[in-house]
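Project standup — Tuesday

K.O.: blocked on the structure for the chain from last sprint. Re-posting the sequence here as requested.
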Amino acid sequence: MAYVVAEPCINCKFTDCVDVCPVDCFYEGKNFLVIHPEDCIDCGACEPECPVEAIYEEDELPAKWEHYIEVNAEYAEKWPNIDAKTDAMPGADEWRNREDKGAELSPDAP
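H.V.: unblocked you, prediction finished:
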């Protein structure tokens, strides 16, 4: 079972999680990160590193964000791989505690 990036990541894109991933299973969109479910080895290293608590084990994902399982799988096939920490998005600190950011998710690659 893979880990999943959920809504709190939108418009923040902190990459502390990427820096600790031993298998480089993160993929980067314009304003969001996803985890490739086939590459994730379920090690859990990424979860405690996320400053906005956006990463969940698939079976612990809150029901309101279950659709992010499919979002991660879909965009991991389209977006480029990211394997090193980068700067968070401009304004990330302003977005980090906002709720209901789902409509802000961009399908575009960076």
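K.O.: great, moving the ticket to review. Helices lie at 16-20, 68-76, 92-95. Residues 68-76 form the longest helix (9 residues).
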